[in-house]
């Protein structure tokens, strides 16, 4: 087992980044134009990186599998973006944002990276405003902030419920400016299928033109992976249908270590599945838990009747309802953190108390809040002896003002009026904290190969706080990578253009083509989705919200079996040289089938419960997560050796010098 | 429920294309429209037929990737949603549903229901940005106060997802609502005023080069826009353009 | 198309400006004609002024003709261009779902109005031109009312006029507010829309009433 060099600079945490930047190697502007950089993925991280690198003068080639960079799934982020601006004057600071992020991540992230993130967070807001991002403002014309779960200050900047969209459009507009100037060459509807290494360094990629099916070679002096997370390993998640781990997994197979795959966030408030045909899950903002009460029937026979639609939730009397979060966590009640709420809901549903036809849903009830707000409003408006109808009417108006758009979205999908009958919710996979291992420079274990945004593992530890994903993506892309990449490229100014006719390119192209040809020629019996769904089921059942040794061992074997079956019996219609969506999916699922196994292996190896990773064997006496800082305060970075089962573990020990390790409690 | 689908099939850009009839059975009213298409595709693959190509990605109405002209309307009969948010309960057992790609010369068909919307990309590259470097060394965000009203109007315009429903619904295949949304977002902000004249001229010029039709103010775009972007933005675009050229 | 009219927005604004000009013309026209319901003398006086005033005849009239021709030619050019921007048509296109019949069929109502204009020119304008500038007949300031009345003796002509004015109303129902939108005046949208509806119904109704009045009162 080797020790990983995370290249954290010396010095006090507050000065590390500044001192480091002062000494870092730079590339002269005249030389930059002779240096090519490939950026894979054009979400917040990739888009901002591509734009900034091009502005600096590098020649950038950017790749997206969608028809436009603006469609990357960063666009779906709703809530907001954190920054330690302290505009509200409520005592926020870089240190506090740093502290909240490390604590929220259950002490499994790298201090130096997180501090740097907090340090540049303010620049992000300045930058975005200058770019024309229409953040929400107050009547004085200044920027508005709101508060988010788990922290004591208001530091979240937002643009309605579409913050991710607006930030992405900002980065995209910066890209467009460079595309127009010819500094970025944009490859839409292209998918990277392998990285090419020459003399141990990343020197290019093999990509498929998704319209014509043509296999293309692209060379560069450095390659940046910004392809997001791997949540779709569960098949059902809040990710986009096309979100995939192929780029990250291919570089893993070429030598980049993969860190903490078991750290995955399950978000408690998503719209539940309605049937086997379900393709995707939709997130409902976490803010709903401020006013909604979560419950299931207390009696099993009531739950059965509800599942069979013989009973309606409003017919169940108050004393026959089990408000399980309030019961188990009296201090925090319905506002416990995401991981805790998700597990509690799963526990009730597993026991048979689920409330929809699939048995996988709990109620989120606003009746109490409607009544409370209604009574309050009646008092404010001096209405004496208001009728129940009047109170309901006034209360519903308050709820509508706060959550109207979410309620409307729910009604469109479920076709039930959530003002009159409780909402149904269920947890769903949302974000992956784990990812490709990177050092302080955001470089992977392969020289010249970088990984940024959700695709890397660096800043969120075992659990991510709300409104921090956007912050990390943009920090990496705008302010960190453009500096650190120069340190590496400074040695490349005399290299000249990298040729694409080398044996390394030949070989990489050959292996990509042979896999694609295999799929087309296999003529099997089952569709790609069939395997993806099977994998998802195993991942959800055994590597989901709560994990145990037995289940994880079974999962590893089952995933291996599915993979074997997949390579024998998968069926991909159509041909190679055309627009072929089934072929695209096949390659992605093949990678998920390997990643899923490493995921389970990592979960098995981490004998503790922390953040999104909950091991049933490691719980306190009252059933809560029990972290083990003595034995597991490290990053598990896996090296690929041919099979996921034979991956080698490398540990990066985490040192906490500026924050004291504590246990979280919500009772 | 059981449905008859009449779907546009086209092998590639050069193929002529035609409507093909399919039957689907046991469709749940809780399915989304695209899930119904998934079910159909699974059954086609099982029968060794080629599945129907259609664009989609986030399936929550924000990425703008999904398209489809359903029964003659962009994103189907419901309002304020994209195709991925359309649910089968909008249809009745026994219905015949026409499914076609978004049509305009500026949106050539790639395959089946997938169209090429690169024209939108080129329009935005022509000026849909503020020329400021991403160095982070700009002025403090709060040093540019913006009235709440303008910030909100700008946000409303900026919520455009670039799906192309405006072009698809317009009897003239005009892209004015799209361009208007982009121009308005920046025109309403002080940061965007500096380049406002060049921006509007260049973006309109590119729009014309792409071969979109002319706007005749029918208002169809506004009705079909999944994000409810108002045609007041088109009036603003006209005004901005006049101010820039005269 | 080159120069100023090379841009789609410029063409659209030009359409709107010619439309606004024609809207003003229609208002004047109906005002003059409506006097024929109340007073033969006033009508004759006004008509005589219009028919013999130098400015009206040699400045306003050419501008008007240019406006009319421009509006029609540009309208049809745009219609053809727009049709061409979607060469493969939808098999099913539910235009009624999101736009009014009037807004979608400006070319049809426009064509009907053009047909009517031809009739109108044959009825009034050509004889006028003939009277004044070809045969140089002596001017009789009292001839106008009788000529007007005479035209509305034929029920077929009255019917054609009524149909044409209904189509004009439909054309204006969309056209009025559309012209304002095109030149970017959307600040008073509500007011413009209401005014547009009133105008689009009132003006053609005025012409229809005139036609009926003279048909029943000659």
Describe the structure.
The complex is a heterotrimer of chains A (667), B (246) and C (218). Chain A has helices at 16-23, 29-32, 44-56, 94-104, 111-131, 163-180, 246-253, 300-307, 324-328, 338-350, 367-380, 388-414, 469-489, 503-522, 528-542, 549-569, 581-605, 629-632; strands at 36-40, 59-63, 81-82, 145-147, 154-157, 184-187, 190-198, 201-209, 215-219, 222-225, 258-259, 264-270, 293-297, 321-322, 362-365, 423-432, 435-436, 449-451, 634-639, 648-653. Among the domains of chain A are: 272-428, Flavocytochrome C3, Chain A, domain 1 (Alpha-Beta Complex); 503-633, Fumarate reductase/succinate dehydrogenase flavoprotein-like, C-terminal domain (Methane Monooxygenase Hydroxylase, Chain G, domain 1, Up-down Bundle), CATH 1.20.58. Chain A is 38% helix and 15% strand. With 667 residues, chain A is an alpha+beta fold. In chain A, strands 6-2-1-10-18 form a five-stranded parallel beta sheet, sandwiched between helices. Chain B has two domains: 3-111, Ubiquitin-like (UB roll), CATH 3.10.20; 117-135 and 143-245, Fumarate Reductase Iron-sulfur Protein, Chain B, domain 2 (Orthogonal Bundle), CATH 1.10.1060.10. Helices cover 35% and strands 11% of the residues of chain B. Chain B is built from nine helices and seven strands; from the N terminus they run E-E-H-E-E-E-E-E-H-H-H-H-H-H-H-H. Chain B has helices spanning 33-46, 118-125, 148-158, 165-169, 176-187, 190-193, 196-209, 220-224, 232-245, and strands at 3-9, 18-24, 69-70, 73-74, 96-100, 109-111, 114-115. Chain B has a five-stranded mixed beta sheet with strand order 2-1-5-3-4. Chain B has a two-stranded antiparallel ribbon with strand order 6-7. In chain B, helix 2 packs antiparallel against helix 7 (196-209) and helix 3 (148-158) packs antiparallel against helix 5 (176-187). The model of chain B has no long low-confidence stretch (mean pLDDT 96). Chain C has 218 residues and is mostly helical. Chain C has helices at residues 8-34, 40-52, 54-84, 101-104, 106-134, 143-151, 155-182, 189-216. In chain C, helix 1 (8-34) crosses helix 3 (54-84) and helix 5 crosses helix 7. Chains A and B meet through helix 3, helix 5, helix 6 and helix 12 of A and helix 1, helix 2 and helix 3 of B.
